[in-house]
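User: Can you model how zinc ion sits in this protein?
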Amino acid sequence: MKNIVVFLYLYMCCKNDGGVRGVSDEESLNYLRKYGYLEANSMGETSQISVSTYERSLRDFQRMVGIPVTSILDRNTQHAMKRPRCGVKDKMVSHGGLRRYAVQRSTWSIENLTFKIWRYPTGLTQDSVDKTIQKAFDLWSEYTDLTFKPTPSKANIDIAFLRNDHEDGYPFDGREGQLAHTFLPEYGGAIHFDISEDWTIDSRDGKNLLQVAAHEIGHALGLLHSEKCNSIMTPLYNDNLFDVKLYPDDIQRIQNLYGPKTKRSQPPIFPWFLNLPSENPCISKLHRTHFGFSNEIPAFYFNPCILKDLN
Ligand SMILES: [Zn+2]
Ligand SMILES: [Zn+2]
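Assistant: Here's the modeled complex, given as structure tokens:
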């Protein structure tokens, strides 16, 4: 390993862009190995790699994160390697300790799935975390017939905020770096968030829980990382993504696994159409409540009282 690193160092001194690097040569090798671009032996070490193999792994990484493909450890590449990201490997290899990720197609065989959050982060209320996680699940049920409901008992998908080594073989690394990781359905679909992060909701500071949860749920449903930057399944965290949603690439890939949505919930009959006096529907003090809320459209969109108030 040492000889290889020295060799690569000499090589890259000639090939990189000569700028101040934030990622050392050995760090880049570790990163590429960690995320599946370079195969590791049973000791977890990268052995006998050639320059062409290293260049190919850099190209694969550059394609995955949507930066210019240069085959060298340039500034863009170093910057990308420094960005916070998902802990799931970008490339799947099929030996050693990585085998649990080496699945081409891993899906749930049932449509109605349950989840349970069994350890919460500090700094956020449980209610706000519950709502955010449900919102993230709802993004995926919007385009499939999958449903996701919380349960206090045994769940299909276990969710927890955990610290450092939490005894699953994939320790977290403290603040920044890896934000979360998830096991594919075949391995239980558990979602782990790094509790060391500054998780936030509806804030431009910290790490946006909805964005990371939506991404990790994609893994829990069987999706791997996408090379499309306009995808919730891109592996790097996006500091500037505030409108968290599924993109065409995500929708196509999840529907390839589970099919398109065929079941639409029926909109409820809104009580004010039945019970309130027809001459003045705004007479009731209930008009600001959200009863009649459907899965699709908040009921107040149809409430003439609210429209009147807005006018
Ligand atoms: Zn991921
Ligand atoms: Zn874990």
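A couple of observations from the model: The longest helix spans residues 126-141. The chain has a mean pLDDT of 80.
User: Helpful, thanks.
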